[in-house]
Amino acid sequence: MSFRKVAIDGPAGAGKSTISRAVAEELGYVYIDTGAMYRACALKMLRKEIDISGDVNSVIKAMNSTEIEIAHGENGQIVYLDGEDVTGKIRTAEVSKGASDIAKIPEVRLKLVDIQRALAQKCNCIMDGRDIGTYVLPDADVKIFLTASVEERAKRRYAELVEKGVKTTPEEVLSDMKKRDANDSGREFAPLKQAEDSVLVDTTGNTLEKSVELLKDIIIKNLNEI
Questions:
Q1: Residue 27, CB half-sphere, CA atoms under 13 Å: how many?
Q2: What whole-number distance in Å separates Cα of residue 97 and Cα of residue 113?
Q3: pLDDT given at position 14
């Protein structure tokens, strides 16, 4: 049986996770958040006090004994790090920065890409990330590049962090967002970029409901044309 694969890429704070999760639920697809895998890896390095940017060899060594698993529960995706459910522990600003840094390491990406591709072979899925349409699933049935202005993306992320009780400022979040954009787009291996055969969607100014409907319509239209 051949399953349908939808790839959604875009920069940090574009709403990929929230929108993709909602669209997947409406279409009856499985949602796979690849960014959560990198966050889990970053969390492990932070716990082990490994300098992700400065001690790449230690990161690679630690990854050799790292197990990342994705499961789906009643409330959505569950992320396991070495058997521990870390779903609620990987959304801090510190982990976000670590995830961006660790994603630049080819050995880390190769290990996680194998897991991601295996997951996509088991179900109709919507997978989001930075390099899904260009590298992880280049044969995806539908590819979408989701973006928004950096100011709006920072505003959304700041609201999320405040809601979770994280102490930060709008200026810090905007600065971190710009650094992460530079990291994601500038890395040598599988950088963030729009696939040539993807549909560009700018959600600046959109409500969540409008963005969900827009992506759902694009996906249905493209699948019907296959």
A1: 26
A2: 20
A3: 92
- Residue 181 near residue 150 (C-beta atoms within 8 A): yes
Mean pLDDT of the chain: 93
Reduced 3-state DSSP string for the chain: CCCCEEEEECCCCCCHHHHHHHHHHHHCCEEEEHHHHHHHHHHHHHHCCCCCCCCHHHHHHHHCCCCEEEEEECCEEEEEECCEECHHHCCCHHHHHHHHHHCCCHHHHHHHHHHHHHHHCCCCEEEEECCHHHHHCCCCCEEEEEECCHHHHHHHHHHHHHHCCCCCCHHHHHHHHHHHHHHHHHCCCCCCCCCCCCEEEECCCCCHHHHHHHHHHHHHHHHHCC
pLDDT digits (tens, 9 = 90+) for 62-79: 999 999 998 887 778 899
pTM: 0.86
- Looking at residue 133, its pLDDT comes to 97
Cβ proximity of 88 and 165 under 8 Å: no
